[in-house]
Design goal:
heterodimer, A: 354 residues, mainly alpha, two-stranded antiparallel ribbon, 3% strand, B: 496 residues, alpha/beta, Rossmann fold, 2 domains, seven-stranded mixed β-sheet, six-stranded mixed β-sheet, 23 strands, globular
Chain lengths: 354, 496
C-alpha cells in the first residue's frame, strides 16, 4: 500500500532534487508524446536534446539563447524571492530594447568606444522605467502587479510595432517592418569568428555574481528579503518596505532591459517586430527551475535553452512544429510544480502483509 | 429528556503529534462541563471531532447510545450537536435574520416566529434586520447561539467564547448558558481560563498533550489545583513587589492624535500620558479599540508630530522604529508570526531585525553574520529559548519559545522602555509565567514598560498604573491598587 504522509519539515535535499526529477519526468513524457506521434522516442529525444548542441556552433547557440534567459531570470529572482509577482519581463525586455535601439539609431553610422556603453545603459534604464509602472501602481495604489505587468507586455509590443512600421522604419527598407542596421560601434562584439555568441554573456555572468552577493551578503538584500516576506515586519524593523518593492522591480526591469539590449545589439543588429521568442515569459520557468538561486538559474537557463534549439532541429529533421519547444517548457514547469508536492509530503510504501 | 454523550477511545494523530490519545469522556445533560487545557492540549481537536469538522483515526461517539458517524459539520447538526466557534462564522454584510436562516430550509415566516420566541425566552435583544457588521462582539456571539438554538440542539459546544467579550457580556453569557443547561441542553465549555471554569461549570475535564488528565467535580477543585493539572507541574505564583516608583519621567505623550484613512482602523483621539522610570503602565481594553494603532504610533510604524512624544528629553514623534531603537526603546508587537518575526527565516536572521548601530550586525552595508549569530546564541541561552540551533527556521519554534526569542531580542539591548502588545497571547501557562517574570525583572532594574493587553488579569498583576482605551480614547490613569477587574470591565465597555 502507498500512503502519503506530511513531512515534519521541508527537506533540503528534496528542494534541489525536484528540479532534476521534473526534467526527468519531462523527458519521459516527451518521449511518450513522440511515441504517440509515431516517432521512435529515443531518437526523437536525441534530435531534440543532443544533436542541437553536438558541435561548436550548436554549443554557441545554446549559450546565445541561455544568456537572455539567465539574465532575466536573475532579475526575476529578486522579485519572486520577495513575493512580487512581476510576470511582465517580456514587456520590460521589449521596452529596454526600444529605448536602447532608439539610442543606437541616434548614433547611426557613427563610430566611437563610448557608443556601446550608452546603448547598454539606455536599455537598462528603459527596462527599469517600464518595470517601475507596476511597482509604483502596486505600492501606492494597491493594484495587482501580475495583471499590470502582464498587460504592459502587450502595450510594449504594440509600441515596438508602431515604431518599426512608422517613424523608425528604415527609409531604404522597402517598407519592411524594421529599422536600419545599427553601426558596429553600437553592437556587442562577437566572441569567436563565425559563431553568434557575443559579449552579452558577460553581462549575464556579472548579474549572477552581483545578485548572489547582494541577496546573500548585504544589508540591502536582507531588507529586500524581509520586505518580501512581510511588509508589516519591514515597517516594524524600520525598513522602507515600499521602496524595497520598487527597488526589486527596478532591478528586475534592468535585467530584462539588458537582455533586450543583448538581443538587438547582438544577433539581430536592428529593431524589428520579433526581437524575442518570449524569453521574458520562459525566464519565469527558468527562475523557478533554478530555485531562484543564482547558480541554479545558470543550469536552468542552459536546460531550457536547449528546448528552443531542439524545437528548431526537430522542425528541420522531423517536421514537427517548432512549438513543441513550448510544450517542453510547459511540461518542465508542470512537473516542477507537481514534484514540489514532495517538498511537503513524502510517499511511504507500506508492506501489504497479512 | 436526558441526553447522554459518550466519547470512547478517540485517537487522532497528526504528523509529529498525537492530538488526541485514546480519549474517553462521558457527559450528561443538566450539567455544564468544562474542557480545560493549554493551547495545543487537544481540546480543539476533540470538539472538532464532535462537530464533524475532523474525522478521528480511531474511536467512537455515542449520543444516547447511538453510534454517531460524523463525517461533516452537517452530520453534527443533523444529530443535534450545535457548536459556537471562537471565531464567528457570520456574513458581515448580511442582516442578522439572513445569517440565521441561511442554512435552513424552513419558511421564513415560521423561522422568524421561532427566532422571536427564542429571543424572548432568553432575553436577547438584537435587531434582526440590521447588518451583522453593526453588532458588538457579544451580540454576534448571541446570533451564533441563536443559530444553534433554532435547531433545538441536545448538545451545545462553546469554544473559548469569552476571548472577545467584556466582563459584563461574559456574565450575561454565563446566565444564558446556565439557563440552557437547566432546560436540558448539554453544555460543553472549552477554555483555558481557570476563573471561568470555577464560576460556571459543574464538572471539569483537563487535557494535557492530547491525553485526558483528570475528570472531577468542580467542588473538589480550586484554581491552583486546576492550573497544576493543566501544566503538569507545580507553578510558582508570581507576584510583583510594589516598590515606590521614581518620579523621574521617561516618556511623555502630549495631545497625540491619529486619523486613519482605513475604515477598519480606529482613530486615536487626544492621547496624553506619561511613564516614569521603573514603572509599568498597563493599557486595558477590548481588542479593536485602538490598541494596535496606539502601539504603532508608539513604536514609530505610524509617524506623528515630532513633539507629541517626548522620550528621555528628546522629541521623537517623527522617528521610525529603527531610529527610536537608538534612543533605547524596544517593541514587541502583538502578531508574532506576521510582524514580530518572520517564520520562514532562520532564528539568527530574525534576531537581526532588531538592528541598532552599536550591534554591528551590518557593517558598511554588508551582513556581519558572525556577530548576529554570536548575539543570537546569547539570547537563546539568556532567555531560555528551547533550542540550540540558531539556523532553525523560526516557524519550528513553539509560540512560547518564539515569544521568548522576540522579548529576548528586544531586551538584550537593555532598553529604557519596552512597549509590548499582548505579550502572552495564546501562550501556555509555563511560557506566560516566564514572560511575566521577565517583565517584572525589567521594572526592578528601573526600566519602564508600556503593556497594552486585553488580558485584565495580566494587567492587574504587572501594572503600577492602568488606563483603559475605548474607541481610541484613553481613560484617566489610575493606580493599579485602586482598580478591580469589574471597574476595568465597566470602563472597557465605554462607561465612565
Amino acid at each position: 500500500m502507498i500512503k502519503i504522509v506530511k513531512r515534519d519539515q521541508p527537506s533540503r535535499a528534496i528542494f534541489f532534487f525536484t528540479p532534476v526529477l521534473a526534467i526527468f519526468l519531462t523527458l519521459v513524457a516527451g518521449g511518450l508524446i513522440f511515441f504517440i506521434l509515431g516517432f521512435k522516442p529515443f531518437e526523437a529525444l536525441k534530435f531534440f536534446f543532443i544533436v542541437p548542441i553536438a558541435d561548436k556552433y550548436g554549443f554557441s547557440e545554446l549559450l546565445l539563447k541561455a544568456t537572455p534567459l539567465c539574465l532575466i531570470a536573475i532579475g526575476l529572482s529578486f522579485c519572486f524571492k520577495s513575493n512580487n509577482w512581476n510576470i511582465g519581463a517580456e514587456g520590460q525586455l521589449t521596452f529596454g530594447a526600444i529605448v536602447s535601439g532608439g539610442v543606437a539609431l541616434l548614433f547611426y553610422e557613427q563610430e566611437g568606444f563610448y557608443i556601446l556603453p550608452i546603448v547598454i545603459l539606455a536599455g537598462a534604464i528603459g527596462g527599469m522605467l517600464y518595470a517601475s509602472i507596476p511597482a509604483i501602481l502596486k505600492t501606492y495604489f494597491n493594484t495587482n502587479e501580475i495583471l499590470v505587468s502582464l498587460m504592459l507586455v502587450y502595450v510594449s509590443k504594440l509600441i515596438l510595432d508602431y515604431l518599426v512600421v512608422g517613424p523608425w522604419s528604415n527609409p531604404e527598407g522597402f517598407n519592411f517592418p524594421e529599422t536600419r542596421q545599427f553601426s558596429d560601434s553600437a553592437k556587442l562584439p562577437l566572441l569567436f569568428e563565425g559563431l553568434r555568441i557575443h559579449a552579452g554573456i558577460f553581462l549575464a555572468l556579472a548579474a549572477v555574481v552581483i545578485s548572489w552577493f547582494v541577496f546573500y551578503k548585504t544589508y540591502l538584500g536582507f531588507q529586500m528579503k524581509v520586505s518580501g516576506f512581510s511588509l508589516k515586519t519591514a515597517k516594524y524593523a524600520g525598513y522602507k518596505g515600499k521602496k524595497m518593492i520598487i527597488l526589486v522591480f527596478l532591478i528586475s526591469g534592468a535585467c530584462a532591459g539588458l537582455a533586450g539590449v543583448g538581443e538587438i545589439t547582438g544577433p539581430i543588429g536592428q529593431l524589428h517586430r520579433e526581437i524575442s521568442p518570449d524569453y521574458g515569459f520562459t525566464a519565469i520557468i527558468v527562475a523557478f527551475l533554478g530555485r531562484l538561486h543564482p547558480v541554479g538559474i545558470i543550469f536552468a537557463s542552459l536546460v531550457v535553452a536547449i528546448t528552443y534549439l531542439g524545437a528548431e532541429t526537430a522542425q528541420i529533421f522531423m517536421q514537427i512544429p517548432k512549438y513543441t519547444g513550448q510544450v517542453f517548457q510547459g511540461m518542465i514547469l508542470f512537473f516542477l510544480l507537481a514534484s514540489d508536492y514532495l517538498l511537503f509530503f513524502k510517499i511511504k510504501f507500506i508492506g501489504s502483509k497479512k | 429528556m436526558n441526553t447522554n454523550l459518550k466519547i470512547l477511545n478517540v485517537t487522532k494523530i497528526y504528523p509529529g503529534c498525537v492530538a488526541n490519545d485514546n480519549v474517553s469522556l462521558e457527559f450528561n445533560s443538566g450539567k455544564i462541563y468544562a474542557l480545560l487545557g493549554e493551547n495545543g492540549a487537544g481540546k480543539s481537536t476533540l470538539v472538532k471531532i464532535l462537530s464533524g469538522v475532523i474525522i478521528p483515526d480511531e474511536g467512537n461517539i455515542y449520543l444516547n447510545e447511538n453510534n454517531l458517524k460524523l463525517n461533516s459539520p452537517l452530520d453534527a447538526k443533523k444529530n443535534d450537536i450545535g457548536m459556537v466557534f471562537q471565531h464567528f462564522n457570520l456574513f458581515e454584510t448580511l442582516s442578522v435574520f439572513e445569517n440565521l436562516i441561511i442554512d435552513s430550509d424552513d419558511e421564513r415566516e415560521s423561522l422568524r416566529e421561532k427566532i422571536d420566541t427564542i429571543m424572548k425566552k432568553y432575553n436577547f435583544s438584537i435587531d434582526l434586520d440590521i447588518p451583522v457588521l453593526n453588532l458588538s462582539a457579544g451580540q454576534k456571539q448571541k446570533v451564533e447561539i441563536i443559530r444553534c438554538l433554532i435547531r433545538s440542539p441536545k448538545v451545545l459546544i462553546m469554544d473559548e467564547p469569552t476571548s472577545v467579550l467584556t466582563e459584563q457580556e461574559t456574565s450575561e453569557l454565563f446566565l444564558s448558558l446556565k439557563k440552557f443547561s437547566e432546560e436540558g441542553i448539554l453544555i460543553i465549555y472549552i477554555t483555558h481560563k481557570l476563573k471561568e471554569v470555577m464560576q460556571l461549570c459543574d464538572e471539569v475535564a483537563v487535557m494535557r498533550r492530547g491525553k485526558l488528565v483528570s475528570v472531577s467535580e468542580i467542588n473538589n477543585e480550586n484554581i491552583e489545583s486546576l492550573a497544576n493539572k493543566m501544566v503538569g507541574q507545580n507553578l510558582k505564583t508570581i507576584k510583583k513587589k510594589k516598590t515606590k516608583t521614581s518620579s523621574d519621567q521617561l516618556i511623555k505623550i502630549t495631545n497625540l492624535n491619529f486619523t486613519s484613512e482605513d475604515p477598519f482602523e480606529t482613530n486615536l483621539m487626544d492621547i496624553n500620558f506619561s511613564v516614569n522610570r521603573g514603572e509599568c503602565l498597563g493599557i486595558a481594553g477590548i481588542s479593536g479599540n485602538g490598541q494596535s494603532e496606539l502601539f504603532q504610533v508608539l513604536s514609530g510604524e505610524i509617524i506623528s508630530k515630532k513633539n507629541s512624544i517626548e522620550f528621555n528629553k528628546n522629541y521623537i514623534g517623527d522617528l521610525n522604529p529603527q531610529e527610536r531603537r537608538e534612543y533605547l526603546m524596544a517593541f514587541s508587537p502583538e502578531d508574532r508570526l506576521e510582524q514580530a518575526a518572520i517564520p520562514q527565516m532562520k532564528i539568527f536572521e530574525n534576531v537581526a531585525l532588531n538592528n541598532f548601530k552599536s550591534s554591528n550586525f551590518f557593517n558598511n552595508g554588508l551582513i556581519n553574520e558572525n556577530k548576529i549569530k554570536e548575539h543570537s546564541k546569547k539570547i537563546i541561552s539568556d532567555f531560555n529559548v528551547n533550542t540550540d540551533n540558531i539556523e532553525l527556521k523560526s516557524q519550528f519554534l513553539s509560540g512560547g519559545n518564539l515569544q521568548k526569542l522576540i522579548i529576548g531580542r528586544e531586551l538584550i539591548t537593555s532598553p529604557d522602555l519596552l512597549i509590548c502588545f499582548n505579550p502572552t497571547w495564546g501562550l501556555d501557562v509555563g511560557a506566560i509565567n516566564y514572560i511575566h517574570e521577565t517583565l517584572i525583572k525589567i521594572n526592578e532594574q528601573n526600566k519602564s514598560i508600556i503593556l497594552i493587553s486585553t488580558d485584565t488579569d495580566e494587567l492587574l498583576k504587572l501594572s503600577d498604573k492602568i488606563s483603559v482605551i475605548h474607541k481610541g480614547k484613553l481613560s484617566k490613569i489610575m493606580n493599579s491598587e485602586e482598580v478591580t477587574s469589574e471597574k476595568l470591565g465597566i470602563l472597557m465597555g465605554g462607561a465612565n
